[in-house]
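User: Structure tokens for both sequences below?

Assistant:
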Amino acid sequence: MSIIHGGAATPSYRHSDRVRLVDSDAPLGWLEAGWRDFLASPATSAGFGLVFAVVGLALTVALWRTPFDYMLLPLVSGFMLIGPVATAGFQAMSRDLENGRRPSLGSAFSTLRANAGPIFWAALAFLFLFLIWLRISELLFALTFPAGAALERHEMLRAAFLTIGGLEFLALFALVGLVFAVVAFAGGAFALSMLVDRPVGAAEAIVASFAAVWANPRAMAVWAAFLVALTAAGMAVAFVGLVVALPVAGHASWRAYRAVIRP
């Protein structure tokens, strides 16, 4: 961990000199700032959020109509793994607001293009993590879910919650999912913000994000809980809530970056 000297963090591991230490109640202020950013550009933010809501709803409906609807839970939970990538555009909008410019989709895409290569590689890394999660979820289902259970939805729910094999599957699913979620959050909490803000490489940004999370475990635990609750609430109402929840999370993530990562 970093040591405090005069309000600054003394480097004790890689990139710790870039990190500020923050209180555990700081995430509430980031959310409030994110909400203000959303209100400053509601049409643009909500319009961009609508794209993700429509895509999420379309994927869910399409999967629901196939024999593979048991993959809905991994798909929905896996959205948290690629969440940092989805918020990059909103962070670019917050950067414009910070610099006194009117946010727009064109301006956001221009900001992303300025460091397009590293942003692409970071997005690819999180997508790869997401695909690994889907594959592991399939393996967990095949190896632990009761073999005799029918694939009808009501029978699957009964087997999941009322059989030993089903409970074993749920426990392993939650445990492995938590590991993936921690890795994705630690690597993505500040990486995309750095890539939007400055000309650094994907690996450097991800490592710096890990350093920032490691230096502020309590604040980051609270921040992760806020982001999960916000995203889950948005997805709970047929993804429609993401029109607001995702932009607020993205704008707030930019404010978190400004508070934790040194210029």
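Moving on to the next sequence.
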Amino acid sequence: MKRIFKAKHWQIFLVTFCLPLLLYIFTLLLAILSQNMRFMMIFMVIALVLFLGGYLAWLWSLGVTLQKRIPESLRFNTMLFKIFFFFPVVYYLGIIVFMKFSMGYFVSNIANHSMANLLWILPFHFFTIFCFIFCMYFAAKVFKTAELNKKVSFSDFAGEFALIWIFPVGIWIIQPKINKLVQDPES
């Protein structure tokens, strides 16, 4: 996690956004030229893992590792953050494994217009969205608390929450502040 704290904003942007985007474009070109769906799915999963892995590592560094920069009296309990952080990870890994072994099932259901069989997954999707929103909220709160060294309300860190939400843009604004905070904890 120290590498994330010391990384420049453009380095994180390249690894978490540009590299997966280039891989995605390569995947689309591969699909158009070769008509090979298997390779296309493999590269799309790799692009998703790169993007989500980088984003989640950045969120983890904000939510858990940055707590070391906060005075003891202001630190937060990270148990709920960790649970909500790992649920999407386990969920997405489960979806990838499930799709690998049951792709024929999904294709036949879509072809037969029986999407009702797939509605069981919607509550998990919605809970995953909630987990991401909570993790962004928690990371923004920890970041602003570490920056100001005082108890903060939502109005204090609403801007950081929005910037974390729009990750590719927010990284350009928040990461330099993290670099400054890590280099000079007194500032």
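User: Anything stand out in the second?

Assistant: The radius of gyration is 19 Å.
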